[in-house]
């Protein structure tokens, strides 16, 4: 069931230049007290559906064009961990319904979502591929029945697993966005250079390829630039909003001052501010990236800043900063402070 009211993802990419996405639902709903850190299973979809709808709505108001159904980790393998495998179908269907309900409040697309399963085994490709394929087929079968416009297969650690997701999406006749996780310095867990892996995915029919999660803008941009130079089709970049750097390429490797691992619950000292994420959006567009978004750690204020940086005025811009009206700062803003006070637009 495709919705006729909205241009599809490929038409938007062709006609509008950049599509603005936005994710990080799992991290944000964990911060809000609705998802358990550790298993990170989206039980919230069934337990507090209004919380999921509210976050979708905040992203929509912030200018996000795609409501991504919260089926991340809502697959058989993960639901077993929390004893909810009997809720599998309901959780998946409900997640797509919630995304649809909010998408209709605006003019957003609905993306089905599949991800790394932790079931793929490069030592036993033929057997594990069957398991992975079965998981994707059941998840996306329900999603298609509930109504999606395209599918985002994301956080893929293995090219092999990503290709299975792509095949299932294409069998359903839907546009496919397939993005890789980048936990390792330069290769997927099954040994493909990230740039080469994106090229292979595009050659196999992925409509949009690229990267999501793990890296902040500073360490994702150089890599996505190489991918852009190699892949002729659409490219996506959805970094985490954390200050990764040469010495810590991913947010998993960031360390607190006492040497402790900051991931996943102590990452706040490394958060970028909204202006820096807006800057990322501008840089990504300048590089020719077509689908620009944000991953774990993302929240609506970043998306609004990114939307405005791309020249848009989403609903939430009604409440964008007007620092000249600030009782203390208004008259005294110095030129050097302006970038931090909302007067930073091009
Ligand atoms: Zn992420």
Keywords, separated by commas or semicolons:
346 residues; 12 helices; globular; TIM Barrel; binds zinc ion
Describe this structure in words.
The chain has 346 residues and is an alpha/beta fold. The chain has a single domain, classed as Homocysteine-binding-like domain (TIM Barrel, Alpha-Beta Barrel), CATH 3.20.20.330. It has 12 helices and 8 strands. An 8-stranded parallel β-sheet has the order 1-8-7-6-5-4-3-2. Helix 6 crosses helix 7 (125-146), helix 7 packs across helix 8 and helix 10 runs parallel beside helix 11. It is globular. The structure holds zinc ion. Residues 213, 240, 295-296 line the site of zinc ion.
Write the layout of secondary structure elements.
Layout: H1 9-16, E1 19-20, H2 25-31, H3 44-47, H4 49-62, E2 66-68, H5 76-81, H6 88-103, E3 109-115, H7 125-146, E4 150-156, H8 159-171, E5 176-180, H9 194-203, E6 208-212, H10 217-230, E7 234-238, H11 274-287, E8 291-292, H12 300-309
Bound molecules: zinc ion.
Zinc ion is lined by residues 213, 240, 295-296.
Mean pLDDT: 94
Give the class-level CATH name: Alpha Beta
What proportion strand? Answer: 5-15%
- The radius of gyration computed from the alpha-carbon positions, rounded to a whole number of angstroms, is 19 Å
Largest sheet: 8 strands, parallel
Structural class: alpha/beta
**Tally of helical runs:** 12
Shape: globular
Number of domains: 1
The strand order across the widest sheet is: 1-8-7-6-5-4-3-2
Helix proportion:
25-40%
User: Are there runs of 5+ residues with pLDDT below 50, and where?
Assistant: none
